[in-house]
Amino acid sequence: MLEKLMNRARVTDEDKIALYINDEVELILEREDVFLVLGVGMKGAEIKDLPAANAQSSNVTEQMYRLLKHAEEINVAGSGQDQGKGAGSGQDQGKGAGSGQDQDKDAEAVVKNKDDTVAPVQGAKRSRRNYFTTGCIQKVFKSEDEKIKAELDDEMGARLFCMEALKFLVSSSSSTMETSIQDAVTDLDKLKNVDWCTVVYERMKTGISVWHNPPQDKPKKNPPKNKPKKNPPQNKPTTRNPTGCIYLLLVNILFLFSLCVETQLS
């Protein structure tokens, strides 16, 4: 369904979003439609893009990371106890949990390296980002853990909620949150002054353009020479992920269909 929507959408020469219905009908979406369809937007807002990171972003992001990570660890530990295995198996699982903590040291090193302005290891970056997901956010809000309740004040709750909302409005179908979204929610005051009509609309246009013209895979560095290949690679289709608020397109189509049905019934 999403692929069909993206295939029908295009950016016109007038820099607007057009949604092809048939040879006689084409919907034109304008910036104001973001507010009409989704109910978000603010006229006259000064900020036309997601707020960038500031001096406090690294500290706030660290707090979010530790909270999300703690909620995930509690959930994993609880799942292990619910399995009701023998004492020996439980001890073995405990050892496994310990090695998991060792693996997370790399992720924690990212926080330290951020403050020390030292480039973190690529693997550590991926490990840290894996906690910024919808699942971990839900575990935080559902948790009865006292430590999580103490750290989940109004500001932290607002940041986590906004992070999930922004993933819906401007992000891709990836399960993890983009770094730009993590940075944006660290400053709630700036987030209040964002022109969401422009941000959502521009991200949707970018997503449509990239969908129709996906970036090509970069060639490998120093490829092996004169090495025969047993199975030569076939031309694989480029993987494309819908980016932006795809529901903006979906709601417009449903609205058009509802008008057609209403016209026929009348």
Commentary on this structure:
Helix content is about 60%, strand content about 5%. By secondary structure, it is mainly alpha-helical. A hairpin with a 5-residue loop joins strand 2 and strand 3 (about 25-30). Helix 3 packs antiparallel against helix 4.
Distinct helical segment count: 12
**From N to C, what is the helix and strand string?**
HEEEHHHHHHHHHHH
Largest sheet: 3 strands, antiparallel
Percentage of residues in DSSP E strands: under 5%
Q: How is this structure best summarized?
A:
This protein has 266 residues and is mostly helical. The chain is 59% helix and 4% strand. A hairpin with a 5-residue loop joins β2 and β3.
Write the layout of secondary structure elements.
Elements: H1 2-8, E1 9-11, E2 17-20, E3 26-29, H2 33-38, H3 57-82, H4 87-116, H5 122-129, H6 134-142, H7 146-151, H8 154-170, H9 179-184, H10 188-192, H11 196-212, H12 247-265
Antiparallel strand pairs: 1-2, 2-3
Helix pairs in contact: 3-4, 3-6, 4-5
